[in-house]
Write a structure and sequence with these properties.
seven-stranded antiparallel beta sheet; 23% strand; 7 strands
Length: 265
Amino acid sequence: MVVLPVTPHLRSEFALPPHREACETGVPSAVRALFRTDPHEKCDVRSIPLPIALTARLSPVVVLAAAGWALSSGPSSEPEAAEKKPTGATGSQSASAPPTTTAPKTYTAAPAPCDSIAEKTVKSLVPKAKAAGKEIRSTDSELRRTCSWNALDGYEYRWLDVSFEVLPSDDAAEESYRGRLKDRSGGGEVPGLGDAGYSVVDLTTEDEQQTREGVVVARASNALVVVTYNGSDFESKKAPSTDEINKGAIKAAKEAVAALLDGRA
């Protein structure tokens, strides 16, 4: 029998490492198992191309990211969007809201001012004046009308104006009434004259000639009545007494308010 010499197998520097359960390659064993062709091979990572190894490492990350994207963009996001859609409640509420209505006005037009004062009153307050008076032209005769009486009886001069003004509402009339009294101090309220009444008398002197003037402002609902009554004596240069002027203005104002109430809309 010829015995052949046994040549020791020299391990090449490129030989694979001995079988071990773990390798110092950093590649997970589960990934390495997918690419083994030799069932006894355990650590031949160099047989796996580098891109494939990286792909194997990154695959779980990509799969998880894809799954997350699917969850965020899938049907579950639709209910949330549906919840944000307007329900239309605002439109239905606005449509069902009752319409705003404007309170009807008590007075819609001013009465004829020249017919508001009785003839005997005109004769007593303005002697020698024509009872018919003279209506002063207005830019809106339905809402604002004024009549004037004036005359000279010897040296005695008298002047009477009666005005009606109709405003859009009671509040507007009240505001106008307060505004007219703002610069008129020294007067007083007149009880029983519409909803509110105020009277004031002033004395002025020009070229030594005195003139005394009384003004009465009254409000009835959405209308105002303004009476102006004044007088002078050109012989004595004196003015009529405060009592005469004040009482005359209030008398004319009461008749004018009564005429307004009689012509109520």
